[in-house]
Amino acid sequence: MEVPLMPQALVLPNIDWSKCDGCGRCVEVCPTGAVSVVDGRAQLVRPEACTFCPTCESYCPKEAIGRPYRVRFGVGAG
């Protein structure tokens, strides 16, 4: 049975504000300008522009940004 994937609009990076120190590194490296620092914390200000790439997550020095994953197991032909 094929499990439908969530629409991209619902699958966005999670930003843990308890870890974020507002350094702005994510803003500098985001290729689409989807992230901004607002009130001293990173926020996804343009979610429609987010392509779910690993860039902001990879560059965050506080590991405050994470992308939720969906694991799919395929059945091999046999």
Topology, element by element:
Elements (H helix, E strand, L loop, with lengths): L13 E2 L9 H5 L5 E4 L2 E4 L10 H5 L5 E2 L12
Antiparallel strand pairs: 1-4, 2-3
Would you kindly provide a written description of the structure presented here, covering whatever features stand out?
This protein is an alpha+beta fold and 78 residues long. The protein has two helices and four strands. It has a two-stranded antiparallel ribbon with strand order 1-4. The longest helix is centred in the middle third of the chain and has 5 residues, at 25-29. The model has no long low-confidence stretch (mean pLDDT 85).
Question: Runs with pLDDT <50, length 5+?
Answer: none
Return the average pLDDT rounded to an integer. 85
Contiguous helical run count? 2
Beta-strand percentage range: 15-25%
Total number of strands:
4
Gross morphology is elongated
Q: Which bin fits the share of residues in helices? A: 10-25%
Radius of gyration: 15 Å
Secondary-structure-based class equals: alpha+beta
Can you summarize the main beta sheet?
A: 2 strands, antiparallel
Strands in their spatial order, largest beta sheet? 1-4
Q: Termini, distance in Å?
A: 17 Å
Element-level helix/strand string: EHEEHE
